[in-house]
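Handout, section 3.2

Students often ask what a structure token actually looks like in practice. Rather than define it abstractly, here is a full record for Ribosome biogenesis protein ERB1. The first block is the sequence as you would receive it.
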Amino acid sequence: MGPKSVDKKRKTQVPESESDDELAGRLFDSVLSQSEDDSDFVASDDDEDDDQDDSASKGSQDDEDDEEDDDDALLSDDIPSDLDGEEALGKLLITDDEPEIEVPGVDPKRKDVGDEEKNYRIEKDANGGERYVYDEIEPGYDTDDTDAQGPANTIGDISLDFYDSYPHIGYDINGKRIMRPASGDALQNLLDSIEVPKGWTGLTDINTGNPLNLTDEELELVRRVQMGLIPNELHDPYPNTVEYFTSIEEKMRKTPLQALSSAPEPKRRFLPSKNEATQVMKLVRAIREGRILPYKPPEEGEREAEEEDEVHFDLWQNEEPQDANPMQIPAPKLPPPGYDMSYNPPEEYLPTKEEREEWEKLDPEEREKDYLPQKYGALRKVPAWSEMVKERFERCMDLYLAPRIRKNRLNIDPNSLLPKLPSPSELKPFPTVCQTIFRGHEGRVRSVSVDPSGTALATGGDDGAVRVWELLTGRQVWSVKLSSDEAVNTVRWRPSKDSFILAAAAGEDIFLMVPSHATVTPSLDQASRDILAAGFGYATHGQQQPVAVGKEPAAKWARPGTKLEDEGVLIRVTVRSTVKVIHWHKRGDHFATVSPSGQRSSVAIHTLSKHMTQIPFRKLSGLAQTAAFHPLRPLFFVATQRTIRCYDLQKLELVKAVQPGAKWISSFDIHPSGDNLIVGSYDKRLLWHDLDLSNRPYKTMRFHSEAIRMVRFHRGGLPLFADASDDGTLQIFHGKVPNDQLENPTIVPVKMLKGHKVVNKLGVLDIDWHPREPWCVSAGADGTARLWM
């Protein structure tokens, strides 16, 4: 039969498998053990079934013996070789089991098969009927069903962990056990780990328990999922953009396509563009001004052009009455009113109902007349009659009841509204003429200062030199070169008569010196040197405050060197930035310096007797411009660009903030009484402040065409103050502060002094007063200093 022939074909291939190693035989044994285990599931209820099983088992043993005999026959020397020919091979393969072909084209008749060779058995079903149960066919390597899969496990979602203690792993569709596949030994695992077969994953199928092998397509799918890619590699995530508008297509042709980006959308896409708003406002402004006209259809534009071409002139627009002459053409008179304008016109002038409706339908500008004739029986029946009478009556009532007031016209002289100021001749003395000109500096003279005795004048300029002059004669008596690179920005005398000490600033260095002068006696010179040298002894004995480690000191006090010491320069103080302003305290032991570019250390207070420098402010709200001590009280004023702040040095707190209202403060000075303040600014204004009245200016004056550089009060008790401007002039004022607080200060401009030349838009840079006389000294950008008397 068929199954038997299959067994024979399979047996012919067994010897080839025996040529392999022992591992192939072990795998084959496991398959066989599985077939033997399957036979255990044939159940019997009666003893007869047991007998049948015994007979079947005996029959199977006999079959096995026959197969062994067949195998021996095949393994004998009777197997033909290739040289024997195909006939011998055909005879060997033909057996008695094959049917004989009698008629061509007709299926051959098979021989009768006994019960022992049947591949089925007869059993009884539940109703007592007979049913045929066929044996299962195990597919082998030599069968046509090489792709047949193993039995499907029907345990569902139940985990295989529950079958760890059993030899099987589940049940197939027929309810038979599916035995657990054999696991390889250590050598097999080692070989599997070394020689990895194609498609090996190291995983186990949860349904069958067999090693899970994946194809190349499945492995590629797993790899793409792990990398976060689209599983289908044929899908294009970035297809070419299909444009729908011609303008966009043209734009895309001109510019290359930009790659797509996953960056967040920029802020400019959902915020209004300021640039576009500016462009729109320009267009709106142009439309309002008539530079851009709105769009009009061509027909309307042509009609307006035709109307503009038709120019009409009014010949009698400015006509004046003239005598009759042939050349005079009088203006045509307006026609008299016709019958249609009468309150009682004839019947033929009255419109019909159709005419009235047609007139109402027309636009006002298309109507021939602005009115329609109407008929009234009497004049008093005209609608305006009643209103006219009422208006006339109310007008008469207004004239009768309205009060009569005679308005007096005021004839006021504008000059009488001005305050009565005293005559300048009554306010003398004040400087009026230039008495002495001091020449010698190369470049601009930046600063001047008169000593407390009033006999010497100190100047500093762009040449880096400090010069001392006799005030009355203009003769230079002493000079020293402080720096060859930096200009001398300011010079100030120590305000005490017991010494003759001058302070000058060049760059970041402050020099303290004792100049030579005819009025300086040896005792005065020695006293001045002792005052300057006292600070070195104070620092030597360790009484000075220590400086924190790693922190730069506010200033360095040292001797300038042998060359400068021989010329009278005894001390050099080095700060962190360029010094522009020096202001002495009235007692002469402290002086303040201002460095506008120094930020936090822009304002510094120096103590002469201790050689110590302090930074009073941790932070300033603005750039410091200048600073000054109060003449009577322990107050300190600091001016920034727009504000002047007053601090109490004892309580260390802010007392007042003065707001002059200037754009940029250049300088300020405090009145000797301490209650008033004058401020000069670069925006050409001079401001007077009453500190007891308000933090706003009491009076604002504009007498200059350029910036004001310096303002100064007279310190000798005279009611004078002056300002210096870049226009090359000095303005002298009479400023009297009364003792009575109920009276306002008297401020009178008395003289404008001209003499300095303007160089590079710079005029007068500094000014100072004589300590007793009504004299002032000015420093100009033209390289001269002038004494005004």
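Discussion prompt for tutorial groups: Residues 1-61, 66-98, 255-259 have pLDDT under 50 and may be disordered. How would you have guessed this from the sequence alone?
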